[in-house]
Design brief:
homohexamer; 341 residues; alpha/beta; UDP-N-acetylmuramoyl-L-alanine:D-glutamate ligase; nine-stranded mixed β-sheet; 11 helices; globular; kinase activity (chains A, B, C, D, E, F); kinase (chains A, B, C, D, E, F); 2-dehydro-3-deoxygluconokinase (chains A, B, C, D, E, F); PfkB_dom (chains A, B, C, D, E, F)
Amino acid sequence: MAKKVVTMGEIMLRLSTPGYQRFTQAESFDVVYGGGEANVAVSLANYGFDAHFVSKLPENPIGQSAINHLRRFGVNTDYIAKGGERVGIYYLETGASMRPSKVVYDRANSSIAEASSKDFDFDAIFKDAAWFHFSGITPALSETAAVLTEEALKAAKRNNVTVSVDLNYRKKLWTPERAKEVMSNLMQYVDVCIGNEEDAEKVLGFKPGETDVTKGELQLEGYKDIFKQMKEQFGFKYVVTTLRESYSASDNGWSALIYNGEEFYHSKKYDVRIVDRVGGGDSFAGGLIYGLLAKDDFKQALEFAVGASALKHTINGDFNLVTVDEVETLIQGDASGRVQR
Amino acid sequence: MAKKVVTMGEIMLRLSTPGYQRFTQAESFDVVYGGGEANVAVSLANYGFDAHFVSKLPENPIGQSAINHLRRFGVNTDYIAKGGERVGIYYLETGASMRPSKVVYDRANSSIAEASSKDFDFDAIFKDAAWFHFSGITPALSETAAVLTEEALKAAKRNNVTVSVDLNYRKKLWTPERAKEVMSNLMQYVDVCIGNEEDAEKVLGFKPGETDVTKGELQLEGYKDIFKQMKEQFGFKYVVTTLRESYSASDNGWSALIYNGEEFYHSKKYDVRIVDRVGGGDSFAGGLIYGLLAKDDFKQALEFAVGASALKHTINGDFNLVTVDEVETLIQGDASGRVQR
Amino acid sequence: MAKKVVTMGEIMLRLSTPGYQRFTQAESFDVVYGGGEANVAVSLANYGFDAHFVSKLPENPIGQSAINHLRRFGVNTDYIAKGGERVGIYYLETGASMRPSKVVYDRANSSIAEASSKDFDFDAIFKDAAWFHFSGITPALSETAAVLTEEALKAAKRNNVTVSVDLNYRKKLWTPERAKEVMSNLMQYVDVCIGNEEDAEKVLGFKPGETDVTKGELQLEGYKDIFKQMKEQFGFKYVVTTLRESYSASDNGWSALIYNGEEFYHSKKYDVRIVDRVGGGDSFAGGLIYGLLAKDDFKQALEFAVGASALKHTINGDFNLVTVDEVETLIQGDASGRVQR
Amino acid sequence: MAKKVVTMGEIMLRLSTPGYQRFTQAESFDVVYGGGEANVAVSLANYGFDAHFVSKLPENPIGQSAINHLRRFGVNTDYIAKGGERVGIYYLETGASMRPSKVVYDRANSSIAEASSKDFDFDAIFKDAAWFHFSGITPALSETAAVLTEEALKAAKRNNVTVSVDLNYRKKLWTPERAKEVMSNLMQYVDVCIGNEEDAEKVLGFKPGETDVTKGELQLEGYKDIFKQMKEQFGFKYVVTTLRESYSASDNGWSALIYNGEEFYHSKKYDVRIVDRVGGGDSFAGGLIYGLLAKDDFKQALEFAVGASALKHTINGDFNLVTVDEVETLIQGDASGRVQR
Amino acid sequence: MAKKVVTMGEIMLRLSTPGYQRFTQAESFDVVYGGGEANVAVSLANYGFDAHFVSKLPENPIGQSAINHLRRFGVNTDYIAKGGERVGIYYLETGASMRPSKVVYDRANSSIAEASSKDFDFDAIFKDAAWFHFSGITPALSETAAVLTEEALKAAKRNNVTVSVDLNYRKKLWTPERAKEVMSNLMQYVDVCIGNEEDAEKVLGFKPGETDVTKGELQLEGYKDIFKQMKEQFGFKYVVTTLRESYSASDNGWSALIYNGEEFYHSKKYDVRIVDRVGGGDSFAGGLIYGLLAKDDFKQALEFAVGASALKHTINGDFNLVTVDEVETLIQGDASGRVQR
Amino acid sequence: MAKKVVTMGEIMLRLSTPGYQRFTQAESFDVVYGGGEANVAVSLANYGFDAHFVSKLPENPIGQSAINHLRRFGVNTDYIAKGGERVGIYYLETGASMRPSKVVYDRANSSIAEASSKDFDFDAIFKDAAWFHFSGITPALSETAAVLTEEALKAAKRNNVTVSVDLNYRKKLWTPERAKEVMSNLMQYVDVCIGNEEDAEKVLGFKPGETDVTKGELQLEGYKDIFKQMKEQFGFKYVVTTLRESYSASDNGWSALIYNGEEFYHSKKYDVRIVDRVGGGDSFAGGLIYGLLAKDDFKQALEFAVGASALKHTINGDFNLVTVDEVETLIQGDASGRVQR
């Protein structure tokens, strides 16, 4: 029987311009629904888990459409509470070459930002669950959301559920000070911590090295030092980061680094021609959870996560619609892209 | 030189499902921008006036897109203030036959709802203006918006500008009690009042007759009584209403009634096959303002308004994209729809 | 807790031309998935039941897409077997005015047509189920499908499940002789029988009256005689038919007739402007099952079914995407199609 | 072996706004290619004739696309000359309800308007041909086109080809005076003359009765008088007109009248819900030519022509994409629009 | 007068997801019709030949659409037989970067797979023909198709027609054993043999070298050995292969190798940014046939074929829509892609 | 207050095939309006200037649509004269990889080509203007257009307006001889001259070096010699050229060279992945005018121009829809294309 895995957070309406249109050119928006933890849930459903997404959505057809979008891709939506005022929105303009993609958020006052623990029966939710994943976005949504997140984490731990976090700092949602205050406390419940240098600094206060990500350079050494500090301070089982080399909006290098307290492992690197990079980090988290649950070796888990998320960059929408077989074929070496008949 | 006319209110992002899709089927939304007074401004620009729309929009690409949409159709946007958090949204699902169109609003906390009179130089705005139009939606947006509306009205009167209102009761925005409180006060500045029975009752407290609009019946007599009361209490120069007979979501009857204190005049009635009925009432207001400014006879003004708004029902989007010539051809009797080569 | 209801049959890929294009004009096909019993399952899921669809689909992305389409609209797909060669297809060209819609079937050798009872655990499927629905299409798919259908029916009866059938004669699938042979036997398991005159004649051998459906005439009297015979011979609890008056491909009259052995009841009639009439009969069956399960009065059940299926004609695709509330609003009298804000 | 039929004229690029968009809303144009005689050729190819279209098109990809569009629908394009400067264009905005469709022509200086008889070997073209059709548009294109048309007609007569004309007056192309001068001369070659009252007056100088077509009234009696005069003066074998009752841009009545010198025959009338009425008259001409070539009875020929062209109104684009079988089904009485499975 | 060339095989309906959508995301499919030999016929028609495609298609609108698609692009369809049950289908999902394109076939029981020589008059078909081309797909469709292919080949040879084959092994259609049995026999009729290493091994039993195509490596030496064996055993005039270096689904290297029994010639190599690579091999065959018929030098023929098929990778759909001039411009050295005004 | 800048020329309807379709595949055209000087005006409006476009357009809905398109993006259209026959057209097929983009012009007899100085009040137009820009296309349109251009230039100089020209030789519009005759005379009014080698040779008669642009090579030295000659002969303040290295239709190198009479400055070079390169040169001119008006340093002006026009290559349509901030971010070094949230 499929393992039960749980993620909790916001699912937003994503309104993106078709093709490479700028916002001011758009006469229509492509519609999908997505959000950090929802995206992770879809990855996990695709890999065969009994994936549950916990959130709150208004009782209107837009909220229903978000639910339907999740159901379509196999996520169990039974734990989604109904109520509140609105579905959060983000507008997306897809960049190309030296023109960056642009995101405009309109997510204040969404149903999940105003939800409380009365909306959920967390012990039922975490009963028999193998994994719980959340991101730093969820507690940043509002003060009640921060409280809600901690209640979920307590229940998860009560039910012996492994917990992962994607730090995911969002400067539009909170200040580094507030982030540190909230997130440092939540780290006590976390087993696996995913976050890049910016996250580590803004969310947890670890000083990054001199990496200048806009220059597409990577300084693995800088990460090692930070990872050791993070492991030491919070006792994570694994500290993990993706390593994006942004050559342009069209082409990126993509790899990842994991630290298990003893050893650093840097994955294979992929050069990806980008179709849609939004959700890339979430697909990495989804792949990593699969890998750590299904594979014996944390290095193989990382390779799965990196291959899965490399593939995500070739898929439209927030969700990573790939199967375990497709990821395995890639990581076992066939990146030739030959037609499969 | 073209007469200067001014409208003030909210312009929203309208997200509508293509074809006759239901919300839960939509993979894309058609994008236009519209709102009661913005729609009126576009009508007036089309008829050759120097039409100004006063509002506030955030400094982001969505706000800019709303401005561009207005500019495209000839509206002067120089008086639009920049700032605030968001562009209000309404979702639209177009009905057919016995399935009604459905609107879901997500307009709370929009920039204009949070604007104050500091954002506008009303004396500059109304200098040399011939007309000011607003609707009952604008003061309903927020308490500050109600204050803002009165300040605009005072300035308009200070500058000897004729004022029209479309009562337009919106139950999602305020209660009848609050509506009455605010709107009764604002009526002192109004010369021309447009509103149907529901508006008259909910906004101004006049008791309607027994018309049951869902049955598609019309009781002209009931209106006459109410119109007389309205004229008496508020001293309007004209009291006007559209008369919609909703046979179905696909076919409507459409006419209007005007009262100048002495005489009632019921326009010609059109049977319209509907392409998009949203903005029908606004196109009527726009046509009426044109008629009263450009024609000698209030009856001819009404016929223009009804013809213009009948045509609106055949046009996608909130805006009524017709010329004076097209309306005149229709009201002079050619409703045959023969191809114009 | 939601009642469990089960339907079984084929779900096909529907490829329809956009707009009113003819097949020879099409450069793209709109894609949905549908089929008689699948459509009924979606209706039942929309009305809040725990609706299960039983079928077989190949293990390829087209089969997966059919499953996802059902999941999106709330149908439980856990009982769908995987295997076989292909998803059946039907091509649809939407007519208008005097040009009829055209369906081209390409459904031979689909997975469900080649499925056997080994693919399903019928006792698990019907455990705690309240209703089972199938149509005359399923046993017509192949000889093995006819055997499979009877095994399902036996299991349903073993588990005390109420059974309904929609006779749905398809001349491309079998001859009247073969239909009679197979279907007459299956009627012993049926409680509620839905079928029009053509079905009654071709499938069960009852001689119709002189109704000429292409002329848009209806002869209720002819039906009464047949219904009595059907009731007598097979002991149905209810015999039901929809009554379509096909004025043109764009406009139809739509009502229904039910007989409970004592009384004939002819529903309200709706004149529908058609958006998509495919699945109209299935949406009627779905509405009827809801009505008979949720309402005390078989007449009210019929009114619900007719209102629901009238609404279906305004919705694109095979599925009837309406809620109980929307149907109730219509059958309680508001067919005005006024915008719902 | 299929009969050879020939038409000659202009084929234009048609740029139409999608849906019911106005020109000023369009961000894309739908593309087809069409023109009076090209449309007739497609009808004739659909009915199984060896249909040839004679024209001239520039040697560029737009000219090639026009050829491909004809080939796709079975027209033989071997007689199309290559050269000249441009493909003529017409812009089309599709109306609805009381808003008329609008055509903007941009056809001056097209290749066919500047073609001469050196571009064509008319005796080869008309060898073994059964019919030649042209319209009043072709000689109106330019002075050289008028000369070219007469040369074609002389060659047709030399080869014993039956000739039909659709008078088709276009006020943007020439004056009534010039039309009369050119067309009166060409009538000597014509066997079958199609034209409505406006054509008869503007092109041939026959005084119409008091029919006011914008009022949707029809005065059959007025036609009879004109038809007799036309027959008398030019010796036509048949004089024919379509009778359009333009209720609105969405709904028309459609029938036709034929006179064989002895008898007037008024066809069955169809009420059509319009998808695209452009090319309606051409589809009538195509149907009439088929009818007169394939049927014994001129009344049956007329019924075929009317049925065929009624169906055209339900089909997008200039071309009438229907088969003989589809027309026969309709004229034999099935206008119910029931789905054909 | 244009040379007559003939190809024979299956033309399928191709249903491809728009953009880079995965199958499970698709709400519509783009529609073209294509298949190995049909694609070759279109290339040959584009190059000015009198190109005939021989096949069988059902008498329904889908079959007609396939014919129309061929006619549009200049292929003569007079030899296509009518009858049988269905048009074969292939579903296509376009890959990007490391995600491969995916093809799902649904082609069993198509009309051509069930055709027999009674459907064709091969001596008429090959009368005055200069070339006949077929692929290894056609005899693989069914046992009757294998018989049919040999009958066509015998007739071609009877009529002194040059014959080319593209070996094109399809593992979904037959085993290497069956392929060898059938194809080895057919090789006696072949003058020009096109096939890569996999084809040579699976279809003809020649042992390939150690080339691992998934690694994007090329081993020209390995080919030379095989080519010599092929030439020796079957007496081909030319043995030819394309050489694809699959860097990713987005970028490929593309060249070709030819052997005339004396000399090996390796063409120029192109690095192509891929729009649609399906039909790349067919466009090579089409270019090669053109080259061998129109050019004196087999090396120039090969360069034409490689240039033509490099261009194909930039064109949507199965067909290579380029002219001789466009190919010549490329192979004479202008690959700069500068705008042509 | 924003500086007033003026450009004058033709705005055409651009009809482009969607995606990478070839013309013969297109069933629709994407619609924008553009032209050299109109594109420059839009750039200048985006950068905050009071940008005016001077032209003439017919009084029909296509002309109005061109005006609306300009207004939408902030250009003042008050100086556009109304009249004449048609809007010029250009058809665009977007290339990829080694397949070049293709432009087919159909611009003869457009309204602006037939305009005269009576249509414009040039002294009003240039009153208080800071800059006037035109291209070599405008005087090439017709003899009257050449006269009109000189009249505009005289008025500009009379009003002390700085003048720039983009030489832009178009071989379809005139011969090098005629170009030299007209343009050499106009150079007396010009302060800033933009043009590449081909322009310098064809329009002004300066002999280029041995650069072969189709080979993607650049010979800066050759330019230096020509620039000196140009400066000497015409007294330009600046001579400027863009330097395009056309690797393929998908990827270009992009930089520029400026000469102020003393110093040559070669900008940074960008490698651009192309979305739409039409209007690239115009966006460079727009950026250069901004730079020279807003920056102290001509080198910084050039960097702005190159950065702006590099970004243009990533934007659909003729217009460069970027802000000053976006260009500054790029030229200050962030070409990483990271998502902006």
